[in-house]
Amino acid sequence: MANRLNSLALCLLAGICTHAVALGGAIQPASANEAVARAADEKALAPTETPESSPARASTRKAATAKGPYYVDFRARTAASWGHTFVWYGKTSEREVEVAGLTPAGDTAAYVLGYFTWVPSETGASYGDLDPQYLTAHYKVYLSESDAKRVFAYIKKLQASSPVWNAETTNCTAFVGDIAEFMRLKTPSRWTRPEEYINKLKTLNSGRQMVRLSEQ
Length: 216
Hints:
Blueprint: H1 2-26, H2 30-45, H3 57-65, E1 70-77, E2 84-91, E3 98-100, E4 103-104, H4 108-113, E5 119-122, E6 135-143, H5 145-160, E7 164-165, H6 172-182, H7 194-204
Antiparallel strand pairs: 1-2, 1-6, 2-3, 4-5, 5-7
Helix pairs in contact: 5-6
């Protein structure tokens, strides 16, 4: 009997600890998530290096920074429904990440209503945008400082001028598509599912990593 009670106590303790860990992960501060997500991206993009190739590290770093000092990262993640598309943008030498995307403001009811009419929107970071475990696809492109100023200003303007969300028209892929078109990128249909949308965006633009806006 004593052994059973001890076993039961251990099981209850393990369940409480597991629940606490899960809750801790859910409320992890954004700054920590940014660092984790950034580290995951850097690891994925970093070239494989052997001890014999270590003398070439300096030239490798130089080549990486030559892509451009600023970036826009088109991203897709899982969600309770079809998924979600959004962008990260910022400076390559900094850990801070700016997030922009279009989502319905409020709870599930607002999302469901958004399939029939327009509902108020939010255009900043939403739950899961900073968590690498939810990421399903991304396409990162680099910009010069002058081009970045124009693109980032456009993103801010788009956020300020997107007060509503609708699943069929003013949805998240349409929002991201407007940013991509401003950057002179070819874009898929706005009715493409988020993961497929980002992968097609990359394919349509031949995976190019440096984007240069026209002078006009």
